[in-house]
Amino acid sequence: MLKVLQNLMQVQSVDLRLNDVRARLATFPKKIAELDARVAAARAEVDHSKAAQLATIKDRKKYELDVELWKEKVRKYKDQTSQIKTNEAYKALQHEVQMAEDEIAKAEDRLLEQMVASEEYDRRIKASEKALKEVEEIVRGERGRMETEKAAANKEFAELNAERERLAVEIPEDMRDHYERIAKKHNGVSLAEVRDEKCTACGMRVRPHVFQEMRRANSEQMFHCETCTRILYYIEPVAAPAAAAANQTSASATSTSES
Ligand SMILES: [Zn+2]
């Protein structure tokens, strides 16, 4: 096999791994954002419960004040009773007292409702604070794992880059440029194996006479896919005697329908 082809294949194998590591590294910001969002949601639930509790306490104070005000009125009305001269005025005052007492009862009902609600919010605050702690604990663990993974990926990335540089110096510059140009066009994949007389990258058939030339050249010559322009290589399948040869003809005959 051509030395340069061999070197390019090694570079390609490193490049594929680099692609993989790069893709892995690219997932971390989103994963970290998701963890942050989980904590934020749990914290928002605590804030929400506390705000609701605060509103309840404010309402309760208002209703307590209402009760006091109406009670004060009742006291005033009752004080006035002694000065009442007519039966009618007395009745009117009694009516006022009754209305004030109704208001007291209503305010006390609302007060009771608020107290019940307040207990509910207390429970909700406690539950949401507990949930927040749990989420924080889980997220801390996951973040730690993620940092470890990320550090490993960064290390792998650096190692692969170093390996790539080491491999690249062995390749003539014009071939390196050639490889990079094709790689850039094809998402980092510049080489393609020919299998079943087809370019495995784009799936297009290699013309029969080109394929014959490839077999004859036995990788001592460089070929390109006429469709996708990738550098092609062909590795003769390890021929297990007669049966395999027979198989291969039938395999290539049927494989046309597979892809
Ligand atoms: Zn192709």
Topology:
Elements: H1 3-81, H2 87-168, H3 173-185, E1 191-195, E2 198-199, H4 208-217, E3 223-224, E4 231-233, H5 241-255
Parallel strand pairs: 1-4
Antiparallel strand pairs: 1-2, 3-4
The structure holds zinc ion.
Residues 192, 199, 201-202, 204, 225, 227-228, 230 line the site of zinc ion.
Give a verbal description of the structure.
- This protein is mainly α and 259 residues long.
- It has five helices and four strands; from the N terminus they run αααββαββα.
- It has helices at 3-81, 87-168, 173-185, 208-217, 241-255, and strands at residues 191-195, 198-199, 223-224, 231-233.
- The protein has a four-stranded mixed β-sheet.
- A hairpin with a 2-residue loop joins β1 and β2.
- α1 packs antiparallel against α2.
- It is rod-shaped and about 130 Å long.
- Mean pLDDT is 90; it is low at 251-259.
- The chain binds zinc ion.
- Zinc ion binds next to loops.
